[in-house]
Amino acid sequence: MHPNRSLRKTAWAAALAFARQRAFGTLAVNGEKGPLLAHVPFLLAEDGASLDLHLVRSNPVTRAAGQAVLSVIGPDSYISPDWYDTPDQVPTWNYVAVHLRGTLHFLPEDTLRDLLERQSAHFEDQLFPKPPWLTDKMSPGMMEAMMRAIVPARLMVEDVQSTFKLNQNKADAARLRAAGFVARDGIGTELEELSQLMQSPPK
Fold first, then answer.
1. 50-56 and 150-165 as β-strands: parallel, antiparallel, unpaired?
2. CB atoms closer than 10 angstroms to residue 67
3. pLDDT in tens, 136-167
4. Alpha-carbon distance 177 to 179, whole Å?
5. Looking at the whole model, is its pTM more than 0.70?
6. Cα separation of the two ends of the chain
7. I need a surface site. Which of 9, 164, 171, 193 has the fewest CB within 10 A?
């Protein structure tokens, strides 16, 4: 997380809403030989107290329950000093990141199908009006065979930290000017979304 406190004032509710909407992140745990990472879709509970995910059984993370952090990354872009139209500025990079830290537990195998159905429903609902994909569309026995290769897990969230680095430390006119350049000339990802966030940083 960025050390500048002005970039870390976003309320838990806004940070959790951002993480819930993204629903994909990088899970990090301590392994015997160093840090282990897994890139996972997840479902964040409504109260933000836990999140559910699944992992391929062969992933080393499945043997490393305990303290973990899930990093959720949002839009980002390089920011040129020229975009502020203000003297004595330097280059920087704007971005959004939320870290969900807590304890990783592995769940009983009989919870896996429910988790998979909730996950697929969460994403399929966003594809409306496409008819949702359902697990019963699988051929007999295929779903069960595939489920043997994955394990369900839950991260009990104990701390939420976020950085919304959106030029809040600049004058409004400079920030808004930079936002316009991000949308047009930015170097990064999801530039239009980042520009909009820069125009109205969450509180």
1. antiparallel
2. 13
3. 888 989 999 999 999 999 999 999 999 999 99
4. 5
5. yes
6. 17
7. 171
